[in-house]
Amino acid sequence: MRLIGACLVLCLALAVLKAAVTLVAIVVIATVIVSAIVRPGETIGCMLMFAMLGVICQHPLAGLMVAGGLTVVGLIAPRVRR
User: How far is Cα 67 from Cα 41, in angstroms, rounded to an integer?
Assistant: First the structure.
């Protein structure tokens, strides 16, 4: 009986944890959607920054080459518009 009670308590704790994680995921997704509507430029920039950090972590040389290329394009683009 004691084992069944312990298993029941653990199952209940895991269900509560699963619900909490689901709630946090829904809040994060809702926050991203609202921020994309209110400030789309900053949201896209933040998402691109996080994607770039992921690329740099997984493939350092290629990631740094892409980051350097984007930096050069960012520095040259305002001059080309004039």
Answer: 19
